[in-house]
Amino acid sequence: MSSSKTAATNNLEAFWMPYTANRQFKQDPRMFVAAKDMHYTTSDGRQVLDGTAGLWCCNAGHSRPKIVEAVQKQVAELDYAPAFQMGHPKAFELAARLAALMPSPLDHVFFTNSGSESVDTALKIALAYQRAIGQGTRTRLIGRERGYHGTGFGGISVGGIVANRRTFGTMLTGVDHMRHTHDPERNAFSRGIPENGAEYVEDLIRIIQLHDASTIAAVIVEPVAGSTGVLIPPKGYLERLRKICDDNGILLIFDEVITGFGRLGTPFATDFFGVTPDLVTTAKGLTSGVIPMGAVYCSADIYNAFMTGPDHMIELFHGYTYSAHPIACAAALATLDTYEEEGLLTRAADLAQYWEDGLHSLKDCPNIIDIRNLGLIGAIELEGIAGEPTKRAFSAFLKAYDEGLLIRTTGDIIALSPPLIISKDQIDELFTTLRSVLHAID
Ligand code: PLP
Questions:
Q1: Claim to verify: residue 188 and residue 117 sit in the same structural domain
Q2: Distance (Å, rounded) from C-alpha 336 to C-alpha 108?
């Protein structure tokens, strides 16, 4: 090996880190080397309380025995099996269990490897379905400002984050966006679902009038927008959205990559809000973050619309080498067992009030302009430093890490979403640490 290419284990340069300030990180690295239950262990031997379930994904906590054991067993037994024209039993078992968990009629499951792939898959199923039922003019997809649907071209097309869209604009045709629902003037410091703003859904009517319903295939929204700072839908908004879609032959897609698997105190946000979409995207909590995996739900009506033509023909030209990967399936089955045995898919409902009270007790800290919460999600919006957006929240992130707490920031918003196993004492610890962080930063 040429000496110039010899890998130096202490060289941080080669890894181009995702969604990271690479230069800042590499000057002052923050490394996790182990994790157990509610805590990470850092490379300098400290314990860090996980206030974000990794990236909103480790809903069962870390290194849970049943999941670890299932993965270890599976890798030794069946390491890989193709899902194209072949199967393995755990894929079917998992799909059936997932279908049973979701309200009807969402009873068919397509496997992916991430939230981004789930979103692209759902958008493609929506387009192909409209074509299959003779509605081939319906090719437009509608998203929402401040929506995050991952990083694939489909996801950033319907997504509403400027930084994700501006550089790749030429690819993003055939989409439009509803306005977001965030209304701090009327809803700041709301507890739970905000009262005001259901009328923002009427923006979809404007879009329908502009393009005509016959050109629109689907609308995609996060029931609760997570990555852009926890934007909770106003009372009545999602119900009205469902009705407008129904009245106009438009499919409704819920992106439940964050809200799925217990985050709101019900298995899915569709249970929480009592609104059933036509397609649901999931990932993250499906395997509690242990192995990459996503799943897209649809109804038998949608599935059956494809089941025409000669039996030997492929019905949907879509799939991934690692769809229904055996190790991911084993991890997901063990995750579902863990959720079931420990009541984790409804645990957030029991903790929600305690969480809300703790979160809102920070209202008197410096520079707070809004606090919002739902289930085991919380957001603290800070007033940005003039001319230096994101800096104040990033300082809070760094300080919290030093103080033994992992938080996540987006813009000048701190987002919190701990594993669903968090105890009341740990909730107290989280907010006590955050209080001292918020007082310590400029
Ligand atoms: N959709 C939503 C709502 C998300 O929050 C995310 C990730 O945070 C994604 C999609 C993308 O998921 P992934 O990063 O697994 O591709």
A1: yes
A2: 17
pLDDT single digits (tens) 142-152:
999 999 999 99
CATH number at residue 125: 3.40.640.10
Tell me which residue range forms the domain holding 269: 68-342
Decide which of 322, 342, 362 is a domain's last residue: 342
Q: Which of 301, 323, 342 is a domain's end point?
A: 342
Give, for ligand 1, the residue of 55, 112, 148 to mutate: max count of ligand atoms closer than 8 Å to Cβ: 148
Phi, psi of 39 (to 5 degrees): -130, 145
Distance 148 CA to ligand 1 centre (A): 7
CB contact at 8 A, 74 and 330: yes
Instruction: Quote the tokens at residue 431.
Output: 């907010």
6: in domain: no
Count of beta carbons in the 10 Å neighbourhood of residue 366: 12
CA of 285 to the centre of ligand 1 (A): 11
User: What value does the mean pLDDT take over residues 235-241?
Assistant: 98
Give the CB-side neighbour count of residue 8, counting CA atoms within 13 A: 6
End-to-end distance of the chain based on CA atoms, in angstroms? 49
Q: How many domains are contained in the chain?
A: 2
Distance 115 CA to ligand 1 centre (A): 4
Mean pLDDT of the chain: 96
Confidence of residue 2 (pLDDT cuts 50, 70, 90): very low
148 lines ligand 1 (CB under 6 A): yes
Decide: 267 in ligand 1 pocket, CB within 6 A. Answer: no
Cβ(114) – ligand 1 distance below 6 Å: yes
pLDDT digits (tens, 9 = 90+) for 59-87: 999 999 999 999 999 999 999 999 999 99
Q: Is the ipTM of this complex over 0.95?
A: yes
